[in-house]
Amino acid sequence: GPKAKFMKDVLGYSTGDSKLFHKNVVESIRGKTPTKTTTTPYGTKHTYNTELVGKNGGKVKANVVVVIQKDNGRVTYKIVTVFSKIASF
Asked: Which one of 26, 29, 47, 85 is most buried, by most CB atoms within 10 A?
């Protein structure tokens, strides 16, 4: 659909690039301070305003939402969503 078209046309990702996309999202927020932090029943939610760089070198301003929670006694970081003014995915 439209999200897949955006990912392919704007950032150059295809269906086989999920690990690369994840790596690029993580790199875009690593070491940055969240712009918003809230506590939810699911854990601490951080929102980061960042710039994503695509496989093709294309760039887009985006928000990345990460929830930090305990899962079987371990602290886990889960990317919940990534969205921009152009599209969400």
From this structure: 29
> What was the pLDDT predicted at 86?
64
pTM of the model: 0.82
Residue 77's closest CA among 44, 36, 54? 44
Q: Let me know: does 88 contact 3? Beta carbons within 8 Å.
A: yes
Nearest to 70 by CA among 48, 47, 41: 41
